[in-house]
Each structure stands twice: as C-alpha cells, then as structure tokens.
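During the second half of the funding period, the structural biology subgroup turned its attention to how the target accommodates small molecules. The most pressing case was acetyl coenzyme *A, which had performed well in the primary screen but for which no bound structure existed. We therefore specified the complex as follows and requested a full 3D prediction, including the ligand pose.
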Amino acid sequence: MTEYVKLVIGEETYKLPVIEGSEGEKAIDILKLRQKTGYITFDPGYANTGSCKSAITFMNGERGILRYRGIPIEVLAEESSFREVAYLLVNGVLPTQKEINRFSVLLNDHSLVHEDMRTFFENFPRMSHPMGILSSMVNALRSFYPYLHQDAEEEINITVTRLLSKIRTMAAMSYKMSRGHKVVYPRPDLSYCANFLNMMFDTPVRPYEIDKEVVRALSVFWVLHADHEQNASAATVRNVGSARTNLYACISAGVSTLWGPLHGGANQAVIEMLDAVVKNDISAKHLVEKAKDKNDPFRLAGFGHRIYKTYDPRARIMKQMCDAVLEKFQTSDPLLDVAKELEEFALQDDYFVSHHLYPNVDFYSGIVLRAIGIPTNMFTVMFAIGRLPGWIAQWKESMEDPNLRISRPRQVYIGPKETEYIPVGEREMNIDK
Ligand code: ACO
C-alpha cells in the first residue's frame, strides 16, 4: 500500500506519495508538486534531493557502509580485482570465468590510442595539469571514434570498452609526454593494472619490474574509488547524459568535475598540505585551529564528507594499505606520520566531533600513490581511472530508465523586476554612482 505524507499550504492539504528503497530509505515524491501547488522546493547542493532511483551502489553515511551491487566494499577490496569490479558495476553481476576472459580480450584489443592523438598530447603546454589533458582527450575520443551506426547495444559496449581500456593508455601517455619521455605501448601479456604501471614507469634504460604486491595495491586503490552513488562527478555525468550527449563528452565532464579540490582533487591537496606541514614544521594543533577558523577559508583536506558522518570505510582500508605498502618497500614516509597525528588530533577536537568530520578516502590515498611512484599531479587522474566504471554504470542506468527526462532544476529568482531599457547615451556611469 502506498504511503503518503501530507503537505499543508494555507487552507489546502496535499497528499504526496512516499517511495521506499530496498534498504528502507524513504523519499517524498514531489514529481507533481509544482503542478498541484505552484510551489517548488529549495535545496542548494541537493543534499536532500534524490535525483534518480539506482541499483548500483548503496551507502549508509551514519553506519559507514558502502556496497557495489550489494557486495560490501571490504569484501571486494579483499577478494576482487579492479577489472572484475568494473565488470560488476557496468553489467550489474559478477562475471563468470568465461566472461572475465572475454572482457580481458576486449580490453586488450581496445587498448591502443589512435596515433594521430599524439599530436594533441604533444601540443599541450608542458605545465598543463594532467586532469585538463585527460578531460580534453576523453572528449576528443569522440572525433576519433565517431558513431558506428550499428546495433545500439553493440555501439554502447564498444564505447564502454574503449573508454575503460584507453583511459589508462592516455593517462600514462600524458605522463610520459609531460616528462619528454618515449611513450610506452600497452602489452597483451599484462593485466589491466600491471599494464598501466608498465606504461607509466618502463623506460628504455630501466625496464620496469612488475611487482605483484604493487599491482595488487593499485587494484585495491581503484576498487575503492570505483563508484560512490550520486557524487558530484557521477551526477554531472548523468546531467550531461540527460541531454542525450554522447558518452565520451559525459565522461569528459565527469573528469572536469572530479578535478575540483572539494572532490577528487582533494587527494593532491592532502599531500600538498602534509608536505607543507613537514617542510614548515607546522603543528597538528595549528592546522586544526586554522581549519576551524571561520574567517579562514582553509579546510582540512581529506576530512569531511557529504554522506559519511562516521569513518569513511574506504579510508579505513586505505590507511591499512599505507602501512602494508610502506612495509613492503621497507621504507617510511614522514607524511604518513603527520597524517596519523593529524587524524588523532582532529578526532579528539570538539569541532570535528560535533561536525562529524572524519578522514575520507583522499586522506590516506596519496601516501599509497607516492609509495608506488605516482607523481602528485597525477593523483586525481588515478582517481578518475578508478571512478570510470562507476560513471559508465551511472550513465548506462540513466539511459535505460524509460522515465529519463532532461535534467533541468528550477530556481528562486531574486533579480530585478521588469526594468526599463535605457538607450546607451542616456545611461549614467555605474562606477561613479
Ligand atoms: N575542515 C574544516 N571544517 C569542515 C571541513 C573540513 N575539511 N569539512 C566540512 N567542514 C565544516 C564546514 O565548515 C561546515 O561547518 P559549519 O556548519 O559550522 O558552517 C560543516 O563542516 C559542514 O560543511 P559543508 O561544507 O556544509 O559540508 P558539505 O557536505 O557541503 O561538504 C565536503 C563536504 C566538500 C567534502 C567538505 O567536507 C570539504 O570541503 N572537505 C575538504 C575537501 C575534501 O576532502 N574533499 C573530498 C571529499 S571526498 C571525495 O570527493 C572523494
């Protein structure tokens, strides 16, 4: 039986239906609100707005739960590979051995990037941020791989495979080119993650030795980033897709959104913050006080989350990975010591406790990336490669929704009422007023 809530406006009472998700989360369906009442809702940042129904990822921010297609993130990080998780997110089910083999063959077949794309890479200024390059190049893929005009499902499958496979080739290519080094091509004998590492670090003078544990660490890093329901970049991908824009352009927009320091760019911001702490001998107390100061725009990078009001389950795994990776290399990282000290200090601070601010996935991820040799300006690119299956899954789900409408929020207009047009010669100087 449908549950309703009552909305009272003046003398009128309106009944609004309630929809319930499979985990018991309830939403008031306001689809007919404006039509029935003339009112709209006001929710900047959409913190209370469900923009879609989705069967991909479940999060519970109060209990620190994250599941892809129902499977807990902890289990996937332990048992699965990034390739398998990508398949799970995009196709909705875990692949059989035959399916995973077929998927690997496809990823291999589509791993090369059109040679003409090198001209684009070569012409970006040397100091370009790799996220800007990645966003442009993903968009450019559409020009190199135009619409095939074949069976729609086949078209989507090929586009999805191309994106998943070529993104790591393009990311490694941009790194090599930024260093002025020879590009390394993908190899058919290497796994998804090993191939990426090899393309990044192999050089003619120092062949890259593939280490199983490093490959595993990268795979877990990407598994942890693979989806996060309606985050800013996934919502962007859906928004752009709602205009029926091609998938390459949607993903390019997702990459641009992720670049921001409040989103994926936080992993770079964390390392820069920790680095500054070490170099300038800043105390944890000073940094926490600065983050609390409302007159200072500074925020503790890698802390806080729109949904998680407890420890981010991904951060917990990432923190353990920091220790494991550093132990493997039998080395230490002063940034990890600072990060741990900062976390301990912040979690005892009243402001952080009362605001429910805990480390998010970005707080420890940079330390793992540093340990495996990824340069800081590539951190957000690493996040983007990991998030790609999620973006694709979100886009695919929205395209399969028979009720999909173009995303078009409303606004509360606060500008001038109808205003007289003054001919240019009769206008007063605004700055002298
Ligand atoms: N340091 C200090 N104070 C913080 C922080 C922080 N990192 N994060 C939130 N707050 C405070 C805000 O000042 C605000 O305080 P107030 O209510 O007293 O004014 C309160 O907590 C709520 O913050 P909002 O900005 O309203 O929370 P919102 O949900 O909009 O933002 C966000 C979440 C963007 C992640 C925020 O916590 C933040 O800026 N964190 C730092 C950047 C970061 O780590 N981003 C990565 C997010 S995870 C990801 O994308 C993978």
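Two results from this model are relevant to the next phase. The chain has three domains: 4-60, 70-264+381-399, 274-371. Residues 70-264+381-399 form a domain with the Citrate Synthase; domain 1 fold (CATH 1.10.580.10).
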